[in-house]
Design brief:
By secondary structure, the chain is mainly α. It contains 2 helices and no strands. The chain is rod-shaped, with a radius of gyration of 23 Å.
Length: about 70
């Protein structure tokens, strides 16, 4: 999508509407990626919390490496 947008700038006959449509598509893609990133971060936080609970319940001692 980004590449298409950049290539469009080379077109001297590019209309404002075409450019605006492509920018909107790119923005939608970025929004979608951001939503997936946020969901991934939530899953990661939940996983880490549950992993810590498991270690506490199992009396595992995890030492950080230096």
């Amino acid at each position: 999508m980004d590449l298409d947008l950049y290539e469009m700038f080379l077109d001297e006959e590019l209309s404002f509407e075409e450019l605006e449509d492509q920018i909107n598509l790119v923005n939608e893609q970025y929004q979608s990626v951001n939503e997936y990133k946020e969901q991934f971060n939530e899953y990661t936080t939940t996983f880490n919390e549950r992993k810590e609970q498991f270690y506490d319940t199992a009396d595992f001692v995890i030492e950080a490496e230096e």
